[in-house]
Amino acid sequence: MRPLMRIAETNAHAPTDDAVVARVLAGDTASFEVLMRRYNQRVFRAARAVLRDDSEAEDVAQDAWVRAYTHLRQFMGRASFATWLTRIAIHESLARRRYRVRHTPLDEHAAVLPARTRPPEQELGARQVAGALEAAIDGLPARYRTAFVLRELEGLSTSETAACLDVPEATVKTRLHRARGILRRHLDASLGVSYDGVYAFAGHRCDRIVAAVLARIDALSETAGVARAYDS
Q1: pTM to 2 decimal places
Q2: 168 and 142 within one domain
Q3: Does residue 82 fall inside a structural domain?
Q4: Which of 23, 41, 85, 158 is at a distance of 20 to 30 A from 65, taking alpha carbons?
């Protein structure tokens, strides 16, 4: 398996997404890691917002990246690469959730926000605050949760969030307003709390996803090479 390269970027010299896609399509598959490092957190968080499970979100993130790689020639540039990729991640996540629902009955719309187990003044430290927020966000209905994560955690604009979810901007605004209201009532505080640490995406998780996806891409390339040799 190829080694991880931890490709560094600076804003001044970083290639555009379209330029990196062109390199990959021209045969420079190693450049795909640039895109992965750039958007791994967004893909994971989008999946995590739908599935509410770290392990499943990692699995879906890998599947989304492999699907994006194998269908890269279908990326037509009508939306940004990031939007196209996020849609793939969300669709993969919804498919995984539908499968889970069929096998484990679950009423997503009846989700109950978890009860607070201790007074706010006893919640000390950034991780405790992030944990309380994470639990509250997990308790949101899926349609509100996904809009909230993309808009507030990932910092996408309203139009970008609408494009990722394939809904009108007005719908995003409504879902975001309702999500904030539910969270505000639950936390009894302003939402001016930092979201750092919510759905944490540490470097080791990024490395793990990159390594797994690159191994799967290598396996796909080897299979394609064997097939070509057989056909000739």
Answers
A1: 0.71
A2: yes
A3: yes
A4: 158
